[in-house]
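### Sample
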Amino acid sequence: MQRTYTVMNSTGIHARPAGKIVNAAAGYPCEIHLVKEGKRFNAKSLVMMISIGAKCGDEITVVAEGDQCELAIEAIGVILSSNH
């Protein structure tokens, strides 16, 4: 399952939102990746989330497979769509 979101944080995905994404992803047993410009990044890795380099207005696709994948996608989507 996958869903695409637009990064709304004016400073993009930096350390704080990256940490929120990792914490949210860690709460789900499924595999979760964020995809930007065809590159996949493990949502459970802080280093990967910071290295995604997403800026405000970028489109990010959240891809999850396994148990609770829909809930995981929604939780991460809320973070990506937040403007702070």
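The chain has a mean pLDDT of 97. This sample (Phosphocarrier protein HPr) is used throughout the tutorial notebook.
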